[in-house]
What we know:
Layout: H1 2-14, H2 25-31, E1 32-37, E2 43-47, E3 52-55
Antiparallel strand pairs: 1-2, 2-3
Amino acid sequence: MRVCGVKKFVENLRGQAGPIEVWNEQAWYLLVTQVTVYADGSAEFLFRGENRITVK
């Protein structure tokens, strides 16, 4: 059931013309598994599928 929800969400994201401008808590929980905030102010986001993004 959860896989179907993620697939539908990703399809909707692909159909977006621009960035997401409204906070969607469900999207956050479906996509992000962990956020680490470091002392230097940077943050590392771990997404499902093990993709990582670091923001400074």
